[in-house]
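re: ur question from earlier - yeah i can do the single chain one, its not a big deal. heres the input i used so u can compare w yours
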Amino acid sequence: DDELQTDGNRSGRLQNGEPGLAPTNEDVIRIIAAQLAEIGDQFDKEIQGRVVNDLVQHFLKENLSKEEITLHLSRVVRELTRSIPSDMEQEKAMLVLAMLLTKKIVNTVPSLLHRVYNTTLNYMNQQLHNYIVEMVSAVKQ
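and the output i got, formated as tokens:
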């Protein structure tokens, strides 16, 4: 019933949803993204330019492995997490900071998009996968 079109979208008859159905994954992702964006806007002021520039320099070093860059990103996120209010879940703060740093790095040096995106995705899969799954499950309920 939930057909997938060749362009990757669902068929038109279920696109608007039907009454009584649970939110789709797209709806859940939009809700989570809006919440994380709001938190990111608050954190944006906390991240100093030197932190971003330091990360840019690491990403520009082509001799560093993916693992080394991911470890460095992880260290920076942990350091920044210490300055976040303690009433927020640490995992949520780490997720938002990783995405915010990615945005800031790519805005500074757009040519790093592919490398930064892959590193951030790797970091999130290694460090925050279970948290992300739990967050999506909680919104679906």
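Residues 40 and 100 are 6 Å apart (CA to CA). not sure if urs matches, ping me
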